Amino acid sequence: MELKRAVITGLGAITPLGLTAPETWEAIKAGKSGAGPITLFDASKFKTQFACEVKGYDCEKYFDRREVRKYDRFAQFAMIAADEAIENSGMDLEQVDKNRIGVIIAAGIGGLRTFEEEVMDYSEERGPRFNPFFIPKMISDIAAGQVSIKYNFHGPNYSTASACASSTNALIDALMLIRLGKADAIVAGGAEAAVCRAGVGGFNTMKALSTRNDEPERASRPFSGSRDGFVIGEGSCVMVIEEMEHALQRGAHIYGELVGMGLSADAYHLTASHPEGLGAVLVMKSALEDAGMKPEDIDYINVHGTSTPVGDISEACAIKEVFGEHAYKLNISSTKSMTGHLLGAAGALEAMVALRSVEEDIVPPTINHDEEDKDPEIDYNLNFTFNQAQKRTVNAALSNTFGFGGHNASVIIKKFKK
Q1: Which of 28, 58, 227, 295 would you label with 71, given CA atoms 20 to 30 Å apart?
Q2: DSSP string spanning 41-84?
Q3: Which pTM was predicted?
Q4: Does the active-site annotation cover 274?
Q5: Catalytic hit among 196, 237, 274, 341
Q6: By the 8 A CB rule, do 85 and 240 touch?
Q7: Is 269 annotated as catalytic?
Q8: What is the tens place of the pLDDT at every residue in 322-380?
Q9: What are the beta bridge partners of residue 123?
Q10: How many angstroms separate the Cα of 395 from the Cα of each of 56, 180, 243, 259?
Q11: Closest-CA residue to 258 (of 203, 159, 342, 178)
Q12: Which one, of 160, 159, 182, lies nearest residue 97 by Cα?
């Protein structure tokens, strides 16, 4: 059986850097930070009082009040990004076979805000009075379900959950379904909205978040010596991944081709990366093998790069092991330095960044690095693209995501050639 090819024809995003995919991409190229004081709740008693929130968002500009009552914030973001991606793809929804269009939208956590609000509102005295939409608002698969219902898409429909690798898993599942001829197109990505008391408090207790409250915009500093944890973010990114011939027949604009995927497990620790980057090595090698590519074929890696003490070291070591001398010819960057960590939505957003880098031949920066702020365990001969975007030919880019539980997922995107 000859495997079919998967191309990307539609992009949508709502992030801490913009309410659309183009706004987000322009801000990322410019090296802007999306971090700021938390406004979604009173964080004054928390160790971390800042986050990368979606700014200027008014749900009633997108949904009527009855719909708002039905959708958790993460599902709202997913539906907005999916709407944009579908429109951007240029698909004629009256002409396509909706039985062959699927939706796979991931969430690492799902409706945490809804769960928090409903539980906090419960009291023994008045008894259980829960919102009748409590459960469907909370469950992580509901975003995919809502998009399929809205557009009457009858193809494969579900969510993937692998913590911070969740939406990369969604893209990988879309790729495999397209390759096998099980769908003509998949609306795939991720969404998350965990900037709430439970989310910030939970990650604080794990000592996972930066506590640089005096300068939040500089708190996410991957690969810098003074990094002290990640900055939690929220938002959604969704793509239309389409079978190549289907896209060509309708004259679609093709941003790039999804050519490789890798999956592995650290099998090491609940939350910490393997110190030698074992799982990261395996997943990058797997992606290269799947794509039929050599290490020298990759020009740019959008790394997981969360700005945590152990994780950044292990990923840098893994890149050196996989790419050898070519590692020093690559561009590497962590766009979490700008967007924060979108948890289950991170992989899709960073794959979009890799895609646009391939399309425009530009590598976005890793911001917030000071020349003297070095970690002796990191090799600074690697090009981390510190502080400013760099123009270069990017024929192929790899995007890494690693999740709690040791879940690793990588995708490779390259310039489209028929």
Answers
A1: 28
A2: S--TTSS--EEBPPPS--GGGTS-HHHHHH--HHHHHHHHHHHH
A3: 0.97
A4: no
A5: 341
A6: yes
A7: no
A8: 999 999 999 999 999 999 999 999 999 999 999 999 999 999 999 999 999 999 999 99
A9: 127
A10: 35, 25, 20, 12
A11: 178
A12: 182
Query: What secondary structure letter does DSSP report for 32?
Result: -
359 C-beta neighbours (distance < 10 Å), count: 18
Q: Which residue has the tokens 């980057």?
A: 277
- With b meaning 16 or more CB within 10 Å and e meaning fewer, what string describes 180-204? eeebbbbbbbbbbbbbbbbbbbbbb
| Cα separation values, 85 from 59, 258, 332, 339, 381, Å | 18, 16, 27, 19, 38
3-class secondary-structure state, position 191: strand
Q: Which amino acid is at 47?
A: K
What is the DSSP secondary-structure string of 360-413?
Answer: HTEE--B-S--TT---TTS-TTS---BSS-EE---SEEEEEEEETTTEEEEEEE
Active site residue 341: yes
- Closest to 33 measured CA to CA, from 383, 366, 356: 366
311/292 Cα distance (integer angstroms): 28
- d(CA 147, CA 143) in angstroms, rounded, equals 6
Please give the angle made by the CA atoms of 39, 43 and 46, to the nearest 5 degrees. 150
| Cα distance between residue 387 and residue 64, in whole Å | 41
- Alpha-helical (H) ranges within 160-303 are 166-179, 197-205, 244-249, 278-291
Contact 219, 210 (CB under 8 A): yes
Q: Which pLDDT tens digit goes with each residue over 95-124?
A: 999 999 999 999 999 999 999 999 888 766
Sequence-distant (≥ 6) Cβ neighbours of residue 392 within 8 angstroms: 299, 300, 331, 361, 362, 363
C-alpha to C-alpha distance for 342 and 14, rounded to whole angstroms: 11
Q: Could you give the percent of the chain with pLDDT greater than 90?
A: 92
Pick the catalytic residue from 246, 304, 369, 407: 304
| Per-residue pLDDT at 274 exceeds 80 | no
Residue 117 neighbours by CB under 8 Å, 6+ apart:
none
Name the H helices within 232-308.
244-249, 278-291
List the catalytic residue out of 52, 164, 196, 237: 164
